[in-house]
Amino acid sequence: MPPAHQAPADGPDLRAEGLRLAYDDRVVVEDLDLVIPSGKVTAIVGANACGKSTLLRALARLLTPKAGAVHLDGRSVHSMPTRALAQKLGILPQTPVAPEGLTVIDLVGRGRSPHQTWWRQWSSTDEEAVHEALRATAMTDLAHRAVDELSGGQRQRAWIAMAVAQGTPVMLLDEPTTYLDLAHQIDVLDLVTDLNRHQGRTVVMVLHDLNQACRYADHVIAMKAGRVAGEGAPADVITAAMVEDVFGLRCVVGEDPVSRTPLIVPMGRHHEGPSDQEVRQEGTDVSAVPVSGTTG
Ligand SMILES: Nc1ncnc2c1ncn2[C@@H]1O[C@H](COP(=O)(O)OP(=O)(O)OP(=O)(O)O)[C@@H](O)[C@H]1O
Ligand SMILES: [Mg+2]
Question: In this structure, which residue's CA is closest to atom 26 in ligand 1?
C-alpha cells in the first residue's frame, strides 16, 4: 500500500508548493506546502481567520497565489482551461450566492455545465446526475423552489447538491455542514463518505466540529495563522495539545463511543475537567475517561 501522502497512480494528485496567499499586502498564508491524499477524505481544521477558506479558494483557482503554485495532476491549475479544471475539481464556497429567483433544480443543473459543449448539449446523463444529486441531498421536493427563498439549511443542501451533480473527482467543501441541524449534518457527512467510498472521490472539507473531523476524515490538516500546525491521521493530529495550541482551548480527549475515534470535550472558564486522580479512580464511567487532556 502506498503511504497516505502518495497519490495512487489513477487518482487525482492535488498539491500546493510554496504558497503565499494575500489580500493586497496582507499575507494570510505563507510558504505552505500541501499534498492532498488522493482518494481520501481530508478535513481542514483551525481557528476563525487562520486561512482555511483562503487556502481552499486558492486550490480551486478562485484566488491567485502571490508565490508558489497549485498543481492538479502535475499541471498548474492556473494554466488549465476553465472547463478542464471544472470537470476535475468542484468547490462549495463558504458563502455562495445564487442569482435572484434561480430555482434549486436550475442551480443543481449548473453543476453540469462543465460537461456540456456546443456539440454535446444537455443529455440524459446530466438529467440523471441532477436528479440523483437532489435525491442524495433530500432536495427533490424543493426542486422548483427559488434558492433565495429557502431556509439556511435547505439552501446549503441545494449548493451541496450542485457540487455533487458536478461529478468531479475532487470536491472542496468549505464548511458543508453550516446551517444544518444535527441530523442533516450527519446526512451530509454520510453522503461525503458514500461519494468517497463508492465513487472514489477525493474530498477536502473545512470543518469546525473536531469530533466530526475525527469520525469522517482519513486525514486532518490543522492550520494555525496560515501555516500547517499538524497533519496526519485524526487520532495523531487532534490531541489536547493541538487543541490548546491551535484554538487556545483546554479540553479532554475521550473516545467517541460510536465510532471509537477521538472525542473532544472542551472545558472553558466555568467548567474544569476531572483531575488526573479522579480519572484514575476505579468505577469512573469509561465513556467519560479522557485518554489525554490538559487538565489541572
Ligand atoms: N476578500 C478578502 N479581502 C481581504 N481580506 C480577507 C478576504 N477574505 C478573507 N480575508 C482575511 O483573510 C484572513 C483569513 O480569512 P479566511 O476566510 O481564509 O479564514 P478562515 O480560516 O476560513 O476563517 P473562518 O473559520 O472564520 O471561515 C482573515 O484575516 C480575513 O479577514
Ligand atoms: Mg472560512
Answer: 48
How far apart are the C-alpha atoms of 67 and 274, rounded to whole Å?
47
Q: What angle do CA 49, 46, 220 make, to 5 degrees?
A: 145
**Contacts of residue 81, Cβ cutoff 8 Å, sequence gap at least 6:** none
Calpha distance 194→185 (Å, rounded): 14
pLDDT at position 118 is: 74
C-alpha cell at 43: 478535513
Q: Is pLDDT at 22 greater than 90 in this prediction? A: yes
Using pLDDT thresholds of 50, 70 and 90, give the confidence band for residue 138: very high
* Helix (H/G/I), strand (E/B), else coil: 172: strand
What's the average model confidence in pLDDT over 183-192?
93
User: How far is 203 from 194, CA to CA, in rounded Å?
Assistant: 11
Residue of 23, 29, 172 to mutate, ligand 1, most atoms within 8 A of C-beta? 23
Nearest CA to ligand 1 atom 9: 54
Q: What number is the average pLDDT over the span 161-179?
A: 95
Sorted by where each starts, the structural domains of the chain and their CATH numbers stand as: 14-98+167-237 (3.40.50.300), 239-296 (no CATH)
Distance (Å, whole) CA 60 – CA 114? 14
Residues with Cβ within 6 A of ligand 1? 23, 28, 46, 48-54, 94
The pairing of beta strand 251-255 with beta strand 292-293? antiparallel
Residue nearest to atom 25 of ligand 1 (CA): 48
Across all residues in the chain, what is the average pLDDT?
Answer: 90
- Give the Cα separation of 155 and 71 in Å (integer): 31
| pLDDT score of 8 more than 80 | no
Would you give the end-to-end CA distance of the chain in angstroms?
Answer: 42
